[in-house]
Amino acid sequence: MRLVFAGTPEPAVPSLHALVAAPGHDVVGVVTRTDAPLGRKRVLTPSPVAQAAAERGIPTIKTDRLDAAATDAIGALQPELGVIVAYGGLVREPLLSLPPHGWINLHFSLLPRWRGAAPVQHALIAGDRTTGASVFQLVAELDAGDVYGEVAYDVPAGATAGELLTTLADMGAGLLVDVVDAIAAGTARAVPQVGDPTYAGKLTLADGALDWHQPARRVVDRVHGTTPEPGAHTTVDGQRLKVLGAEVVETAEVADLAPGRIGLVGRDVVVGTTDGGVRLVRVQPAGKGAMDAADWWRGARLTDAVAGS
Fold first, then answer.
1. SS3 at position 65
2. 108 closest CA partner among 150, 146, 148, 147
């Protein structure tokens, strides 16, 4: 089957590789967003999907909008099915109906939970202990199409959004190939989504602000859900501190720590919350590199401090 693939960031790359390697299919073109400035020197850099396509010699359309020009360019490839994974834009008519089999989307949640741009991050922030990946028929409404297949995954303790997304990208790539095979064979059956949808909008820097007047579990879930992007953070004595790793402290010794109060419990740097403590594992002070929280505490020569949001 002739496929056109739309994707942009690293989590889309395993799916592209899997489709290219799958027998019986031909990825005739890739659609990705335009080169973006990266690093301190703001060097224009192709997206991870663009780089993967170039390595395989696949014709690439770079565009930030799936407009009439993009529709004409995709139509010239004569795809039978469109596949989209984290492209970063919406597919609308007439492009939606251009391939005879339409478009399918690999989404990193168990739909209808967490429709939208940041499903993995929101699942962790909400404390979900099971998530997964779904492949569904793309329709005009956001992530609302019938589902061809899904795979569930129990979230490991301490997993960050970046780590979880990497795992789901690999698992989802296999699921995606199975669905494409079934569509080509005429055996695919999609079923309507069941349940009340929840939505996962794109996160901003403000979503990474830690509120120490919450239970410890919720604070740690937010650290995991916003790592590596947009990044969990707090302030200590007015200075910004990025929190790269944290865990709930299961000890009565933190009972005297008021919410936001930072102290040493044994050798651990612990912040009080409404129901216990959060151990800071790894942090990054403003203008410095990442380091163990204990090293930061000793270097800052703090004996008592208050974290803010």
1. coil
2. 150
- Using DSSP bridges, classify how beta strands 291-292 and 305-308 pair: parallel, antiparallel or unpaired: unpaired
Single-letter amino acid, residue 162: G
d(CA 308, CA 229): 20
Q: What are phi and psi of 195, to 5 degrees?
A: 115, 170
Give helix 161-185 / helix 13-21 axis angle, nearest 10°. 30
Nearest Cα residue to 104 out of 172, 194, 21: 172
- Evaluate whether 27 touches 99 at the Cβ level (below 8 Å): no
Strand partners, 74: none
> CA-CA distance, 218 to 203, in Å (whole number)?
17
| Structure confidence by residue, pLDDT tens digits, 44-91 | 999 999 999 999 999 999 999 999 999 999 999 999 999 999 999 999
Write down the pTM of the prediction. 0.94
